[in-house]
Amino acid sequence: MKKKITPDLLPEYDFKKGIRGKYAKKFAQGTNLVVLDADLHKSFPDSESVNEALRAITKIAQRNRKKVTT
Length: 70
Description:
Blueprint: H1 24-29, H2 38-41, H3 47-69
């Protein structure tokens, strides 16, 4: 019996040792996926840099809120 070749998959893709559902448990726990625009990728190349920037913005926003309410 010949294997049917899917046109989207190249012959060098080998899934024989693949594990089905390897990340299913983590996905089920919930993930936050955010897609950055291409121009932002240069400033934020990884999740660590994005988190650092968001924490800084959050701190500034909290400080400004306190100034407005007092």
